[in-house]
Amino acid sequence: MTDGPARPELAATLRRLRDEAGLSGIEAARRAGLSQSTVSRLETGRRAPKVKEITALCKAYRAPAEVRAALQASARDLQEGTTSARIVLQRPREMQERIGRIEQSAALIRGFQPAMVIGLVQTLDYARAMMSGRISGQMLDQLIQTRQDRHAILDSDRDFTLLHAEGALRWHIGSPTIMAAQLDHLAELTHRPNLRLGVIPWDRPLTMHARHAFHLYDTHTVIVGTESGTAFITDSVEVDAYHRRFTELEHVAVFGDQAAQVFGRVADDYRTLEQRSE
Q1: If you write DSSP's letter for every residue of 219-250 in order, what string do you get?
Q2: 155 & 182 share domain
Q3: Which domain holds residue 44?
Q4: What is the spatial distance between Cα 124 and Cα 79, in angstroms, rounded to a whole number?
Q5: Which pLDDT belongs to residue 85?
Q6: Confidence band of 4 (pLDDT split at 50, 70, 90)
Q7: Residue 105 to residue 10: CA distance in whole angstroms
Q8: pTM of the prediction?
Q9: Does any domain span residue 2?
Q10: What is the 3-state secondary structure (H, E, C) of 187-220?
Q11: Closest residue by Cα to residue 224 from 90, 232, 114
């Protein structure tokens, strides 16, 4: 799939194309068969574009074919909807690549996981053990490589806030050795300047519950993974709701040295478990 610009860049590109075409918002809307308000929302990034809207606007602006293709690809990545788990398992690399492009689209990436370690901070052994329950062979190798390639984004100038419930760290994947190494890795990551890695300790009383994992990309996209599928959400009202929930979770999490202490405590529990099994 052709790599396209991210939603903020997409909006800026649409504004630039209209300016270069010498068209007002009203005239651009008329030629594309859209409302002026739709053109305005697309150019300000307040709404994710549909592929047919991109196609119509590019035709009105006489945009080059390669620009049109890139914008259409970006619109497909940002398209709201749910991909069934069956399709994800049939084409896992394609899903990982799509998520990777959305990650590239954001300056701020936030995530919450109540059930497992977040993908961007998984060790290779943890990722392989977790995924091997559903896929195997060459497909597993390709998926692992694609997942590991995404980790390079941690070295970019983006900001990350990633939260785990302590229960996610105690979901025993693979072996005590794998889990202890994973926890040590998380403790090391607490020192990265662009990554706020948090955990909600099990002994902290709460007045909320977590239904599922979710990831936020700036204020434009939420990805929700469930047992039945992966949902891409771009509706501003729903995105705002997830933003509020993340803020609530962030307020009860611990970070920095406190988080490292939790990771270390859980790692020690796995080492004790390993010793018992010897």
Answers
A1: TTEEEEE-SSEEEEE--HHHHHHHHHHHHHHH
A2: yes
A3: 7-77
A4: 30
A5: 42
A6: very low
A7: 10
A8: 0.71
A9: no
A10: HHHCCCCCEEEEEECCCCCCCCCCCCEEEEECCC
A11: 232
